[in-house]
Every structure is written in C-alpha cells, then in structure tokens.
## 1
Amino acid sequence: MARLAAFDMDGTLLMPNHRIGEETLSTLKRLRERDITLTFATGRHVLEMRHLMGRFSLDAFLITGNGTRIHSQEGEVLHRSDLSPEIADLVLHSTWETRASMHVFNDSGWITGKEMPELLRAHVFSGFHYQLRDLRTIPAHEVTKICFCGDHDDLCRLRIQLNDVLGERAHLCFSAVDCLEILPVGCNKGSALGVLSGHLGMTLGDCMAFGDAMNDREMLGLVGRGVIMGNAMAQLKAELPHLPVIGHCQNQAVSHYLSHWLDTPHIPYSPE
C-alpha cells in the first residue's frame, strides 16, 4: 500500500478546462481517510496552489515550480532551489532566435514583458495573474526559474540553442508541449519528492505518482508506482514504456484508477 501519493496538476488532476472534477476531489479525500499523505507536484507557483488548496479543502504538501519549492501542509518552506545568478543573467540578457515569449518566476510570482491574455486561460479557476515588467531589470539573484512559451517546434530549436550555451549548468524540460523550462541543476519533481519522502520518514518506494509531461519523467520513474495519463506526451510514454497508461484527464482518469485501487485491487485494472 502506498503511503504518499503525488499528483501533477495540468493534464493529470485538472481537466482540459483547468478545473478539478468532483469525482477526483472526492477520491482524493478518500485517500486522506486511508491516512495516505497527499502532495501536489506541479510547475504552478505556490501562491496559486495555496489558493487552490483553500478551494479544495485538502491537507497536502506542495511541490511547486517543478521542484524548486517544497512546502509543508502548514506553509513552511522545507526546500528551495533557484537558478544560479550567472545562468539567470545569461538567459535574460542574451538574444535567442525564437518567437516564444519569456517568463520569469520567483517568490513574488510570475513576471513577463507584455500582455498575453491567452496564457491566463490556464489560471481562470485560481485568478493567478502575471506581473508586467522589463525582464532585463530583474536582479539575477531573484530568479527561481525561466520559461519560454510558444510553438513546440520553435521551442525544440530553442532548446538546442540553450543547450549549446548553458550545457550542464541548468536543467531543461518541457512541462507541456508549448512550455520549455529552465530550472536549477538537479531540480525536478522526482528529486523534490525524494526530499519530501525523506522528511516524512518514507522512501520513494512508498510513493505513487501520476503525470503527463516530461517534467514528470523523473518522478514517475523513481516511485514505487508510477502512472502515466492517456493524454500524456508521446515522449514520456516512450521513455517509460514499463509504466501503466490510464485514461484521459477529461474523464477524470486518476479518480477512476484510484477508486479501483482502493476498492478492487485484486482485479486487473482496465482504463475507462
């Protein structure tokens, strides 16, 4: 029996309209009744997740910013990791051949250089909003992570540029097909979940995790029970072919899978 359950948000717990379904919320509460600890492991900011937790009425640990922060159920910072000032300065002040927009995240929130209302659709439930600012004026020591949002093929070309310049001094990953993230070295959801499980006196073998994107790869590959969404990125499925694939987030597949796991674990699972 898993003792700790970790959930990605977008494309996993959340439906395509960026809201959580009632069946999913009910199932998460059933896990808590079984004394299974919950953690939400997401690229979203902790300020947004705290608001959502209040709406969900759930006690959960938070792994936010793709592993850059871990917070306790009471809001205490258990772990933090930021881009090195050298890398942040290099990314912010270099000229990149891309049409993608750049976004900076730190403890104050989400900062970008121009109005992009289409990006706010993913945050309609929480009301989380970016701050407008010239990104070049942000002190390099105040940068947690940097994201580029745009067309996937353009981002793939950008990733080659970033790899050539940054090398092994940063961790690059796709948190969605249209979002490329630059994170501190060694920073990912899997390493953060390892820190959290140790804090709780557990091992990663005691954990189950659900995800759909490449920023979930380390987490899903390290836990005792990793589960991939049916709507997951093809690259994630290809890199973790031994893991089970369940249904689509549109159909609240996490709830469907967990209900089976809780009620009829002796019967082989079949996606809805």
## 2
Amino acid sequence: MRKLVLAAVLATCSLFGLPAVAADFQAGQEYVELKSPVPVSEPGKIEVVELFWYGCPHCYKFEPTINPWVEQLPDDVAFKRIPAMFGGVWNAHGQMFIALESMGVERKVHDAVFRAYHEQGNKLATPEAMADFLQTQGVDRDAFLKAYNSFGVKSRVEQAKKLGMAYQISGVPVMIVNGKYRFDLGSAGGPERTLQVADFLIEKERSAQ
C-alpha cells in the first residue's frame, strides 16, 4: 500500500516536497526526447539511468540529493548507474565501477571512492592504486584486480561505451528515463529540479503503459 500511495504522490509532487511544475517541463527545454529510444535492461519496469564519473565534481555534489531519492523510488522503477566513458582515466574509473559491481561491493564503497578522489586527492589512476585504496575499505585486493582484468568486466565496459553513445551524452551527470528522455542539471535547472523532471517523466511513462 505504501508503494501505491508513493506512486500516486509522484504524479503531483517531487519526493523533496517541492511542487512539480509539470506544465513547465517541455521536450527541447528541460529534457530531450531521443530520436532513437534505447532498449532498457529490465522490460516491464520504468528504467532511470544516471551516467556519471567519479572524477566529476558535479556528480559528487549531486550524490547527497540523488541518493535519498533513489532509496524512495517505487517498485515499478529500476534505477541504475552507468559510468561515462570518454577515454583515459574515465574508462579506468568506469572499469573500476563495473568490477566492483561484479563483486557485489559497489554500493558498500561507492561513497568512499568519491571521497577519496574529491576530498583526499587520491586520483585512483591505475588498477594498483585502486586496489590499494579499496583494500582499506575491506575489498580483497587480489580479487578486485582479478575482476578488473576479467573478460566479463571488459565486455561490460564496451557495453557501457555503446550505451553512452546511444544516449548521445557529452558530459555528466546525465539522467535517462526509460531509454527515451535525456536531461541534466543544466537543462533542468539544478539538482532538485533535475529530480522533479525525473519524477515527471517517470509518471509520463507510467501513464503510457
């Protein structure tokens, strides 16, 4: 019942208690409708994707806003993070994220990785530097390096690159709703309003089902 009530609330207001001025959200302004929709990973659910980079200061500052929102999403919404891949350290960090996901420990260390980069000056530029840091967070060093260099992780890195291209992203953080709509902090007008746009587009997709 709580989930049903929450889903109804999403139609009229954001989870932060701010008015969701849906009439103001228009394609070509706050969000872009992709010409070629991208298939979602969980058919039957409304998929919300955040593309990010651990080295991005805007992504780091977005974390305290987006994380509580993610925790309160209703059951018919599937949220996932995808690392943006623009070459160099972006790809290395993306491969680290995917390796940690494959090990089932990404959620445990996600915040710590962000803090290491932005607060401690640890750029985590090599697999060895990543492994050394992650060991301080309770992640087995050798297991991480094995996962990082595995065929499965490298295959998922290539998939992430293709998704970034399909979404036509040029920076981060960027959000995608149901493979159809792209928007970011700049187009939406700030972190809180970005999530209002997300709520609006989630309800738009829910109503269309």
